[in-house]
Structures
1.
Amino acid sequence: MATTYIAADLGGTQIRTGRFDHNLNLLQRENTLTRANDGLAPTLERLMTYIDKVMPSDRRDAAGIGISSPGPLNPKTGVIIAPPNLPGWHDVPLADIISAEFGLPVFVGNDANVAALAEASKGAAQGHRHVVYITISTGIGSGVICDGRLLTGRGGLAAELGHMPILVGDECVSSVELEAAGPAIARRARQAIAAGRQTTITELVGGELAHVDAQVVGAAAAAGDALAIELLAYAGRIIGLAIVAALHLFNPEIVVLGGGVTKTGALLFDPMRATVKQHVLDESYLDGLRIESAALGGDVALVGAAALAATDGGNMDISALDKLF
Amino acid sequence: MATTYIAADLGGTQIRTGRFDHNLNLLQRENTLTRANDGLAPTLERLMTYIDKVMPSDRRDAAGIGISSPGPLNPKTGVIIAPPNLPGWHDVPLADIISAEFGLPVFVGNDANVAALAEASKGAAQGHRHVVYITISTGIGSGVICDGRLLTGRGGLAAELGHMPILVGDECVSSVELEAAGPAIARRARQAIAAGRQTTITELVGGELAHVDAQVVGAAAAAGDALAIELLAYAGRIIGLAIVAALHLFNPEIVVLGGGVTKTGALLFDPMRATVKQHVLDESYLDGLRIESAALGGDVALVGAAALAATDGGNMDISALDKLF
């Protein structure tokens, strides 16, 4: 019986591939630059070359291939629709192409959903059946596991917590991502500086406002800068409201938070937790609820892609993975 | 083989019970006043009496009992937590009590989830596997079916779209329900009138502001009153944003809208649809999407309770129901 899973992480910057055993332990990994600007065909070629590098010597030992890709994509059909960071990719039937090349079942998932599956399989949410995963970096991505199964919706477009609309002011509609992701934190910092606000952020970027990013704001906040602390608190509050929405909608056992912006730590997390406590409908949503940082590091997409292959694209109950271990 | 389902709708005003055949056709119905103010024991007694009235002569013909109840409740344990309109009910193990009395499996669901199951079984969403149901009346309730299964979460508290927090102004946190349910529409009408706004609503209630409700606002709007039209448009816009959130989170095939406030028709629905179109992340969420009015009338809770019994409390895939038909 084939008990090896092949995983690929197709990112805007890097292509990473790996071979996993039946316990989802990583046996071999490879990586190369995506060089997405070369266009579709060379990138596909490179992806196939690096999948081939991690194939077992006897291909029959491989049970399937899981691929993490930037969205939007349709996990039911394996078609990549039009990722902003993969120029030239439009409606690419990636699963069919890779399956034809290697003669194996191929499952494709968007990076946030795949990461959710990874955290539920081998990370912070291992053993849980009701999981909300949120990653906060240049965007806000999320993945949800409802009663053991990855939530994908009709066309694989579900679980976009970052795109929940929120009202700001009586008229202006914004979204969680537009208010709380890294670029939003940087934008608010630049606006405050342009309006004459005194802050050490200005010194940290040598007066070059274009260099302000969430990491710089985090550093300034850690050093006690008042504006930077306010900005992280605002982002924390918005993320807290998104978590409240997630609790009311999914009633999860655990919320896992990943992504670069979460590295800012307590200055983000404390206002976030306070907002959750203040605005949750009922204490029962918090009974036994855990809100935790993601446990898997740089291998999260590979582990998740292997889990995707091991659960038929997330369609199988994740308890099937426990049986593997 | 037992092929009859017993259904009960425990409401704040009425108790209704029914016997259904294996196709979920209603064979017999009974009803009585709940008289909830009598307290727990008399209400329970009345519920059991009216369940008994619809029992088949040979009790072995009944496969199970489904009960629709006001929430909060835990559908996994069948415990009613503390519904506002059932005074004296605190942590009542309703499923166990009814099961002990009748010797049958008993499944309990909150009214909005049960209605979602009803619409997906025999109503507007029949044949669909990805369904969002929203009912807008004195509150906003909702139920979600994800890939054929009722979304309940860890403790049965999921799918509360009405309790999604939304920011109004930069600081004030409100919710969909607090901005768009019937009482919110009435509150805004009273506020505008108190602020001196001229409107026919004042005449419709004979100057008695306490009598303003969403139905009166609906009547005034239908007759062309400018304030009333504005108020419905605002509610429609908020509901539209809730639907946008639901599309991004659940990527459904169909959104079903029920409840008294939806009777106001186009003056609510047109701004709602315009908001959905304006704020949806991507056209692909709208591909083939249907937004429809609920199809089941007063029997919705009974039909849903029968469907609850037929799907082991919503845990089975709803395609199991199709096999029944």
Note: DSSP finds eleven helices and 15 strands in chain B.
2.
Amino acid sequence: MAQLATSVVNLIEQFSKLPGIGRKSAERLTYHVLRVNKKEALELADSIRAVRENVCYCKHCFNLSETETCSICEDPKRDSTTLCVVEQPRDLLALEQSGTYSGQYHVLLGRIAPLEGIGPENLTIKQLYDRVQQGTINEIIMATNPTVEGDGTALHISNIVNDLNIKITRLARGITAGSILEFTNKEILADAITDRQEF
Amino acid sequence: MAQLATSVVNLIEQFSKLPGIGRKSAERLTYHVLRVNKKEALELADSIRAVRENVCYCKHCFNLSETETCSICEDPKRDSTTLCVVEQPRDLLALEQSGTYSGQYHVLLGRIAPLEGIGPENLTIKQLYDRVQQGTINEIIMATNPTVEGDGTALHISNIVNDLNIKITRLARGITAGSILEFTNKEILADAITDRQEF
């Protein structure tokens, strides 16, 4: 690689570290940065810097925020008696985009994954308990991912908050809107039959 | 998107502008930048800035360089009588990595593409002519891409330098090492038969 300028080699290496970006993609991205006008390239650099310097976690719900308290926690129009528990800020965003939920959130910042050494103490479960203990919340909706680890995390949390006598629900499971029964896998169909609803 | 911090939204938009990065990938990259340690995130930002601030084109061959003249043009061990013409710095890199060429290069910084409004005057063809006219070069190897536009660009250049009476060659075409004849397409096989060599 002696034929490439040092800063080009550096940038290729930096891009390669990003998830889903291999060596060839990193080279393509680097040539793109070299080709676009300088303003656009520096905007990307500044945005990365800004995100790391301005963004922190909301002190109540652990959503990403540029202020101590995020815009959802501060919104007086939202229902503060319902709490939706998600793994990551991006899950919160996906639920917000569905436009059907108007309560509060609590972001765990991960899920319990013993194989990766992530235990309950690495998540914001204690803060969730403290929040629920204050008494304003009537319902907790478990919206962890429908995976073994996500389900395990939800089960762990429901065991912990059980003594507070609060209604605990989880997201509905079944066939997905727009899908075709013939091509739906057996786990999904099993969920759909088990949780069947009155017509 | 009111639920996301402004600088997060900004970075997602900046990442989306990169080639091959869609909305979802941009979100994933942004969350990655938020998750890694601050040093690593800022290194990426600084590398992007450094590339745009330090890297320029070599004044002889138009390869990317941090100095006026690139390391290849300055290397006295390289054969200065052979000139390999490529479209982009990344083509130069690919040829260098093959380890079989030790002459000089000339980077066109594109190819003639009338549909995109790129004509000969947008490339470094004039500088190539001036360089060849100085008289030290005996052979020009056309290493533009084997596409309609690449071939057209090579043809255009060969017409222009024709009056200087220099040997002009192009990269060999044929079946690729490791390929399987049965699955090789007809254009490649036609090239391979036309340019067949003595055994």
Note: The longest strand of chain A covers residues 79-86.
3.
Amino acid sequence: MEKVAVQLGQRSYPIVIAPALLANAKLQPEFSALWHYRQVIIITNPTIAPLYLSSVRDLFAGADVHELQIPDGESFKTLQTFEQATSFLLQQKISRDALLVALGGGVIGDLTGFVAACYQRGIEFLQIPTTLLSQVDSSVGGKTAVNHPLGKNMIGAFKQPQAVLIDPLVLRTLPEREFAAGMAEVIKYALLGDASFFDWLLAESDAITKQSPAVLSEMIRRCCQMKADIVSRDETEQGERALLNLGHTFGHAIEAWLGYGTWLHGEAVAVGMLMAAKLSASRGDLSSEQVDTISTMLTLFKLPVLPPAGMQIADFFPYMKTDKKVKAGKMRFVLFEQLGQAVLVDDVTDVELNQVFANFHV
Amino acid sequence: MEKVAVQLGQRSYPIVIAPALLANAKLQPEFSALWHYRQVIIITNPTIAPLYLSSVRDLFAGADVHELQIPDGESFKTLQTFEQATSFLLQQKISRDALLVALGGGVIGDLTGFVAACYQRGIEFLQIPTTLLSQVDSSVGGKTAVNHPLGKNMIGAFKQPQAVLIDPLVLRTLPEREFAAGMAEVIKYALLGDASFFDWLLAESDAITKQSPAVLSEMIRRCCQMKADIVSRDETEQGERALLNLGHTFGHAIEAWLGYGTWLHGEAVAVGMLMAAKLSASRGDLSSEQVDTISTMLTLFKLPVLPPAGMQIADFFPYMKTDKKVKAGKMRFVLFEQLGQAVLVDDVTDVELNQVFANFHV
């Protein structure tokens, strides 16, 4: 049993991480307020529903429980799906004192959270992330959004959940490729803020790959704790929180260029982090050995280290220039001050990018 | 020159009310932070643009100023228009440190505010309300939203502006019917919280109708002050703020039943307030003379006192049961404890409504 408290004043909430928590959540004192809602709406998808929907339904026995399934995949994280969800809630006469439950990965969590932020100007929601990526990253911190054809997560809100319920055993039904994509975000935490966690990941790589429940619980807790600490200090990304976007400026461009859902988010972030490392190395802040170590780590966890075939550095520009981190007209990148310490940089020029990534052997 | 401060901690902001303020805003110290934005996007409509857009453009001389016009009318306060606006911002490469300016009435303000709440998870915005209704009500307090076919303002957010700039002289170009609709919200403040303001409105009715700048400024200031006080105590409508919905439960049903944009919002609210008064009278909290006085006041300011032809009380139910004030399955109404003092009530039954409004002679 691992616990993390996200400290945000009145919007504080608990994260509880434990094997078989989905079955045992009712025993958790942290969750006691969850069982009093009169109306509960579980938003999930056809992949997750047959596996875990009945467990979650059981938790809310006694309430008026509704379910809404949306198609699986990043390509459905759109304003159209958002509209369908709000129409469903209105048709079912869901009132403002209901609870939404996000049961699924990042798409379900981001979409449900955005619906919770906007439906009748805000109702409460619970995160039950079922992918590694959402357990370590997207379910924590209150960033919610849908994508726009011109940019990922461009329409959204900051909306904190009431609680996050994480059961690492659900990862056993996660496809290997998605587990790997989640590891990209895990590695991200090590790279941006904790070099000793980087070493720990290397040491525990076998146990992680074999999904030892204890090791996974500790790994997820360390990620959630780092994220919670950063979010507590900078909820709406005025500064430090932007460091969590390590690899994301390049990564979002990859996702958008390919069309959302072709590569997994984590895969794009993996390549993005390596590009950030390469750029940092060209500036003298990382050694080429460190870049190689990062590349080795990504490969160890079955992640890509090269951009998609055919994608040139020029293809990144249009997406990077509408990135949410753009400020005063300048692109801003999260780069490395050193391994385990990221920094926000706004003096990267097109010329420099063209030079460093001329032949794209990142 | 009248000023109101909305006290909301870090989200506090000034409301400044003065004749010719649109021309003189640069002289106001309260607005000094507004002139530093690099990108400014004015959202307005084809009715307002020819009248006031160039004045607002002049205020932001030196910035990169964009404009977006959306069609005039409540029927365009939709998720589709919201999507068009966000697409425009992305196409124009508007970054998160830009300023949106809502130049128009309640539709422009609510829509622009909701775009500001969601674009890249939130950017800043300025309210320049150009209708009486938006000057006394919708531009203050941070309620933003779009409508859904199943209910008004069902998709939205709480998003406070940076400032509210109110120039009563712009009301001279407002159609008489819209001025009257705004007076419904003015009368609402008197009815819900200040009986002496009710008397003042009667005494000043001539000066108000003739749009004396000094009298209008004072009237608008008194409304904004009441709203600011309530919002400061209850920003997200956990309690007291719901009193501002006096007349709105019935009123929204009228608007939705007719189709948004057929009646003006204020017209529907006028009838709604009279229905609330009638219901309160049947409960013994108002005298029939007081109901008559309210009816006289509404008529004096050219407002309707009867629901649309053909609308039966049964036609109200479907809309009222999905009202945002519904809590624990119960409809909640804002009724009168006495004239000048509203109260939230949740024990109104269908039977009672059928009885009081059997033949609809409100």
Note: DSSP finds 14 helices and eleven strands in chain A.
4.
Amino acid sequence: MKDKIHVGIIGFGTVGTGTAKILIENRELIKKRTGIDFILKRIADLDIKRDRGIKVPEGVLTTDAGAVINDPDIDVVVELMGGIHPAKDFMLNAVKNKKHVVTANKALIATEGNEIFAEAEKNGVEVGFEASVAGGIPIIKVLREGLVANNIVAVYGIINGTSNYILTKMTDEKVEFSDALKEAQRLGYAEADPTFDIEGIDTAHKLTILSSLSYGIPLSYNEVYKEGITKITAQDIEFASELGYKIKLLAITKLSNGEIEMRVHPTMIPNEYLISKVDGVFNAVYVEGDAVGSTLYYGRGAGDMPTGSAVVADIVDIARCDNGQKAKGIGYVSADYKIRKMEDIESMYYFRFSAMDQPGVLSKISGILGNYNISIASVIQKGRRLGGSVPLVVLAHTAKERDVLSAVKEIDNLPVVSDKTLFIRVEGKEE
Amino acid sequence: MKDKIHVGIIGFGTVGTGTAKILIENRELIKKRTGIDFILKRIADLDIKRDRGIKVPEGVLTTDAGAVINDPDIDVVVELMGGIHPAKDFMLNAVKNKKHVVTANKALIATEGNEIFAEAEKNGVEVGFEASVAGGIPIIKVLREGLVANNIVAVYGIINGTSNYILTKMTDEKVEFSDALKEAQRLGYAEADPTFDIEGIDTAHKLTILSSLSYGIPLSYNEVYKEGITKITAQDIEFASELGYKIKLLAITKLSNGEIEMRVHPTMIPNEYLISKVDGVFNAVYVEGDAVGSTLYYGRGAGDMPTGSAVVADIVDIARCDNGQKAKGIGYVSADYKIRKMEDIESMYYFRFSAMDQPGVLSKISGILGNYNISIASVIQKGRRLGGSVPLVVLAHTAKERDVLSAVKEIDNLPVVSDKTLFIRVEGKEE
């Protein structure tokens, strides 16, 4: 083991700045704890003029990523530029130069990770990606090491701070999605183009990684079911509350009948579940193991310093334990596995039908639900708007997604139904 | 790195059985994940007849601990017998035989750990103790590795399931301490002699370990302030609830003015804090780091399988990364440090005075509080019992413990105060 490790960072944005800050300001602390001196040797970024509020030693900044990747002194290359290209090439080149790499880039790991891990294994180097999921929460370490003795039963994650902020705002202040989004944008929690966050794409990237770690399968982003939060209304949140639930954008991976589920969608969670209390930009991941039972990990899912905390933990881990073993844990199973098709899943469901306010509507709708073996647990019907349409809310016991899709299609064709039905999958114990 | 690791267990009780179960039943899973085959070679216990509900291969059971400690094949000795003697000698002998050791024994680590770690370092072996705090929650790993880049600002833990069960029961069912304790004993959550749990001793053992990891100081059990939950009444819980708080037995360690606080006592926590929702036998540890901010880790703090999960994670870690680096992290600071004296701490406070129902009592009590710079935030006084005594509840802004002790002493000497004052420290933001 070396007692000095040289680190190079590519990308001096938010997370790059946080990482640099920690490496500089907490250098003595980390050295005391580990016996290793971590030296920040280079930071590459196209913009090396802007003031980031930290004092970087002279000679560290460069506009040339090659000066990091090809520096023979540098042991660990930290990729924090984001995006797929040229980040991927930078990482692969670093790996080929026998450098360990650390990244916070979930999109890159989720979509190109299999190739990067294979190349790393070939070159005997590590790939650290703790910062790619749930920011400062050490969830990758928990899954790979802390719960290594467990068959993973299920993982449920609130792993997109933007969506969680929006849903929390809608819940607390009874505002509509678009207003909550605007506020998130104003506060810098959502980007000008919020698609990645609100459509569940970012969540799906992270879920891909969690699922691979949990079940030892190759990264399979394309097989994740994705549904965003844009259709959720303040009214749905109020109905959910009345029924004893919160609405959260959940990433779910679990084993059902030997098949692996990977899905991202708005989900109703019972108020008494701890994860339903995770509000604002905070993230949390619930992990159930066959030995450990229920566990939950909570913290900030983004930000310069929390994400930097995870990046530096990866760098330290690699330096402490430089034996190639950590690379195991993604894709270790070469045997059969099957990703469950979305229409094969089973769940409880919340339906909001837009029904004309006429006699017999409930009977028609519930008749169709019954035909598809969807059994009703509770109904809320409120207010009357003569001749107009009213929301009819139905909470259903466990049913098959396939049946739900068919039933909704049939119901949406009824003349007494004025608008497309919204349904939300519901977690919790059957009563 | 070896591809086969031989494990010997001393102590075939609850945790020993869980550990053996996991090593046997999840052996293939762990081998797939790590590339290492973990072989359970020996289990020593005085009683090897009792049926533990698992099938142990022939030749594994022995009544002789020496058969584990001195077996040249065994790489890792797992001490799960509990107690100080002879567990300590067994561990030291194993270490002297150049065997790594893993234990769930918080009392042993907290009180004799400094000697054991020193001996382990001398012999170049590891001591794993993940299972000693918070059962299956990988909190030791989180502090040592996941948050290695952080100065730890504070740690707050609910780390004794028995006390938390009792307080939850008192809260949910409005029963008194003694009834809740009886129920805990009936369910096997509390022992016949519950002293260790309800007097905060077990919590203090665990806090000692968390504090050493957080601040790099030698294990200092004797300097932990300990106060149990026996004086909390159903009425206090109700008053707390009225004021917006839950009462929990908290382990607290934090830095204040360069001094380290280590204290265990009942604590009022605002309802909106996630940790206040941790109920029943569950444990949770809140950790605040200078980079990562607020994080929380939640799960089962005891039980055969959860604790076994942590034991096996330690065994795997040692096998994966056999380079002596993990031993760093307890006692790495040789420099000055100071444990803060309890009377030097500052906190908000809840007081329940037993005041005679007479005019002028509130003015007398609040006068004395004022003399000691204890400023009142809210008061609850309810009911009248002519000539009798009524509870007078005061919530005070941040004050010095030293002043609180003096004020309470003076107040308890007033003729209009009929019984000893109970006070509870209060966490949360000043309003």
Note: Chain A has a mean pLDDT of 94.
